[in-house]
Design brief:
alpha/beta, 6 helices, 5 strands
């Protein structure tokens, strides 16, 4: 009898939506819709352009309820920073993570750090400062939650890197592949937590 593999949901804003679209289009021969994790995890993506923590909680919890994933990899918070202080966004993310654990029985959760905007984005450095505060805040408030971890997309640690489209927000083909690889790493980390 074969072992049932865990289901992982990568959930969030336009980065997730665009990666899902690009995977279906076969944007890179090294990338596959199953993240080359067949037999290890079943991976689904759900992203909405412009998604905030509030809109995700108001409109998209049905995705978590219907799929009942073992793992959620959360990419959220960037769109919130245009209107809210990082600490308030971080507290909302913490509340969402706790909700996933208590109401949806998600067994492992990875909270992805906000990716900085590219240098061509207006006020890129201001955004980077806010994102840094948010990332630090979230890493503190979720640190004691069981089977919750923060995930740093290490390739995107500098807005000067050439991974962005002209809008300075979304990722070019090279950036998309690096994001794909990073999400794959986050899923594998979460799978490891399920075995402990």
């Amino acid at each position: 009898m074969s072992e049932v593999v865990p289901t992982a949901l990568i959930l969030g804003h336009s980065f997730v939506k665009r990666l899902q679209r690009d995977l279906h289009r076969g944007f890179d021969s090294r990338a596959s819709c199953d993240f080359n994790l067949s037999g290890t995890a079943s991976v689904r993506l759900h992203g909405i352009g412009g998604q905030t923590v509030q809109t995700l909680q108001a409109n998209d919890l049905h995705v978590v309820r219907d799929l009942a994933p073992d793992i959620v990899i959360l990419q959220i918070g960037a769109n919130d920073l245009s209107k809210l202080p990082p600490e308030k966004v971080g507290s909302a993310i913490e509340d969402l993570v706790r909700l996933f654990q208590s109401d949806f029985s998600v067994r492992a959760i990875g909270v992805c750090y906000v990716i900085p905007r590219g240098i061509f984005f207006p006020h890129a450095m201001s955004f980077w400062c806010k994102a840094t505060v948010l990332n630090q805040y979230v890493s503190v408030v979720v640190a004691d939650l069981p089977n919750v971890f923060c995930w740093r997309h290490t390739e995107f640690n500098n807005p000067h890197k050439d991974f962005y489209l002209a809008d300075g927000v979304h990722l070019n083909r090279s950036g998309q592949y690096l994001l794909y690889r990073s999400y794959r790493g986050a899923v594998l980390t979460a799978v490891g937590l399920l075995k402990n």
